[in-house]
Description:
This is Calcium-activated chloride channel regulator 2-like 1. This protein is an all-beta fold. It has 1 helix and 23 strands. Strands 3, 5, 6, 10, 12 and 17 form a 6-stranded antiparallel β-sheet that branches. The protein is flat, with a radius of gyration of 22 Å.
Amino acid sequence: MEGDDVENRADSHQGLYVQVTAKRNSSTGLQVRLWTSSGSRPINSSDPSTPVVIYTEVKSGVAPIMEARVVARLQRLGTNATGSNYQPIFLHLWDNGVGDPDITKGDGVYSRYLPSLPGSPGRYLLSADIDYNSGLAAVAKGPPTRHHKSLSSHLPHYHQHGYETWNGEQTCCGHSLPHVHTRRAPPFLRHVTWGVLEVMSSPSHRDNVPPSRILDLRVEVNDTVHEIRLRWTAPGDDWDVERAHHYEAVVAPFWREARAFQGDRLTGLPQPLPAGTLHTTNLHFTRYEE
């Protein structure tokens, strides 16, 4: 143990914030880093225009570790009105590459939006627990390949369209690194602490936090039966937390029109699933360009 650091950061004189730092075991080559998009700035949780993202990077040396279990913990400091400790808030971080907020799948960087923190302004200790996910975690053994088959290549009669290019426009956002060669990660467990988040305002009583954006939509068209297959990752109700209320979609000949929601509305869309869940649905569509 390198040393102890005791500092009074509690909401009242009844509690203490205690930080204990131990020397890192570097024999496994495991590298873990935890940070936020807000840095050390105070957080205004009532302003949805400045969302905060929690990030954790997990690597073995320089190689990314995929499919690890990464759970962030937010512990409000001090005691509540009854003199008890506040209940911690747990948040599973994802390396899914859907684009909002996680940009690239397979790079070993896991992320989620900071959820709404109930109660009055306060200080929250941010930490994370990382493990090998019961043997599912894998380490990349080399650089990612540039060429890989898309899902549509295995589906007869379907051809695929995505958001990367539409009418020559580069639109957005998330993607994945297709690591062909991986090895199973050895068992590991790591606990890291970032520090204290200063929340300076209470969440708004109005529902003013939007869902996260859908940036991994894939459209596969079956001309034979006049059917389209849609695939996307479900957003949440507040950013990527819980589930959205409902979906709306339009079809338009140009990206700018679709983005402005000017086009033919699609019907038969499914009810939203919990955030982070993969949606797949088939819809019949009868209007085609000649």
